[in-house]
Amino acid sequence: MRRFPAHPFSPIEDPNFDGDKLKEECGIFGVVGVNDAANFVALGLHALQHRGQEAGGIVAHDPEQGFNSVRRFGYVRDNFTKAEVMKDLPGPLAIGHVRYSTAGAKGQTAIRDVQPFFGEFSMGGAAIAHNGTLTNAVALRRELIERGSIFQSGSDSECIIHLMARSIQKTIAERIKDALRRVEGAFAIVAMTRTKLIGVRDPLGVRPLVLGRLGDNAWALSSETCALDIIGAEFVREIEPGEMVVIEDGKVISSRPFAPAASRFCIFEQVYFSRPDSIIGGRSVYETRRQIGVELAREAPVEADLVCPVPDSGTPAAIGYSQESGIPYAMGIIRNQYMGRTFIEPTEQIRNMGVRLKLNVNRALIKGKRVILVDDSVVRGTTSRKIKDMILEAGAAEVHFRIASPPTAWPCFYGVDTPERAKLLAATMTEDEMRDWIGVNSLKFISLDGLYRAAGEAQGRDPKAPKFCDACFSGDYPIVPADKIAEGFQMKAAE
Questions:
Q1: 285 near 50, Cβ under 8 Å?
Q2: Using one digit for the tens of pLDDT, what is the confidence trace for 73-94?
Q3: From CA 296, how far away is CA 451, in angstroms rounded?
């Protein structure tokens, strides 16, 4: 059923406007050791807003007032910049979360699904915020309910709270370890007790988490380094795959709760999700994306007059393509920076405008030109078709698409919202068929080896031991998606 606003000025995201882009599940942030830690968390979440726009939440602890929580729908800037809200979140320790749902309520977000989640245990309260997806959550949830657990949300993350409650360990940190040993999938977690800030990454390190320092005794945990920058924190290091850090009294204690495993960081963080001003694995995300464009120009050259990005995610790759090919870079498509949400009722006429509400063609520049359009990905292809139509209507002589990722042929089950496989264009069509369906003069994707080279792997992808999780391109799932297999999902046949 389509959602409509209660009145014409209620904010709503129409899935038709941006339903052809992959969505990250969320961003997490935590701070300990500063006055009014929640204010720092709000700033950090603002920097992580690209990772989730549906809702946000902050939990803070004050020695006198105890735990306090605020959860709100919408953007951080509209909720956590108000003095009357922040005064309810005192204390030197806080964690926060911005959400885009991949597990839990779809469509209209329920407030009960907004993290961080809080639980009161015999040794005191604890809050937890999770980025990723648990691939055995359905089975765990069924088991927990049969044993008497009462779930308050539709989120897979709540399983962790219930597993903690059932643990016999004497400390919150040990209970978190207990719980996470039972779960499967991808997770980066920021948690807090009355005195401790805790960070954990799954054994493969699929989802990101970094550590930052504020002064002598204050610390921060974040999904990305760009959120450390906004609060003036020094980037110290990444939390390593399978590592757990417990921060208390200005000290960081590290442990390894899980069996060692080879790292498989999500390569789509490099392509699309992370902000270009973040650092991943010691490499600038911007530089990796620029290098993707360089590799694309080498792998798929074409005679043209202009290289234009599909803003904003295609911009660094377009710059790299232009630099390597010698074809001039130009802003052939202009993005409306203020089109986050529509505040008018999405009538059929408005929906048909679709992409035009966000993007507009620079007609004077495009007319009569052979144009290379560089975009980050093709998911269902519907947006690509609309952009092609806009470019041709503006009088372009030719349109060539160059895509800064390999064909997305498999769904992600590790924290990225992807359509079922049958709706992925690359799952049902060859590259030539996709070119004809989109209706462009040429369509080329970067190879998987080219993507690896751009990400710093000079020899390309080692099929026996891939450095990254690239399941959405290769069908090689490093963590068995148990719940999805139980639902009938067919894994890629062994080659």
A1: no
A2: 999 999 999 999 999 999 999 9
A3: 9
CB neighbour list of residue 138: distance below 8 Å, 6 or more residues apart: 483, 486
Tell me if the bond preceding 63 is cis, omega within 30° of 0.
no
Pairing of strands 55-62, 66-73: antiparallel
DSSP H helices in 403-470: 425-428, 431-438, 448-454
3-state secondary structure of 45: helix
The DSSP-derived string for 456-495 is T-TT---TTS-SEE-HHHH---SS--HHHHHTTPPPPPP-
| Strand arrangement, sheet containing 66-73 | 66-73, 55-62, 93-99, 26-32, 218-222, 210-214, 234-238
Q: How far apart are CA 276 and CA 327, in angstroms?
A: 23
Domains defined along the chain, listed by start: 21-264 (3.60.20.10), 288-337+344-460 (3.40.50.2020)
Return the closest-CA partner of residue 245 out of 195, 282, 197: 197
- pTM score, whole prediction: 0.89
Q: Does the annotation count 266 as an active-site position?
A: no
Residues of the chain with pLDDT under 50: 1-18, 102-107, 341-346
CA distances from 289 to 43, 367, 384, 452 (A): 26, 28, 20, 11
CA distance to 16, 21, 400, per residue, from 382 (Å): 9, 10, 16
Question: Catalytic pick from 26, 226, 412, 469?
Answer: 26
Cα distances (angstroms) measured from residue 361 to each of 121, 329, 376, 380 = 57, 15, 18, 22
pLDDT in tens, 249-284: 999 999 999 999 999 999 999 888 999 999 999 999
Q: Which parts of 215-321 are beta strand (E)?
A: 218-222, 234-238, 244-248, 251-255, 265-266, 279-280, 283-284, 306-309
Cα separation, 38 vs 70, in Å, equals 10
Strand partners, 399: 371
* pLDDT tens digits along 91-137: 999 999 999 754 444 445 688 899 999 999 988 999 999 999 999 99
Separation of alpha carbons 92 and 86, rounded Å = 13
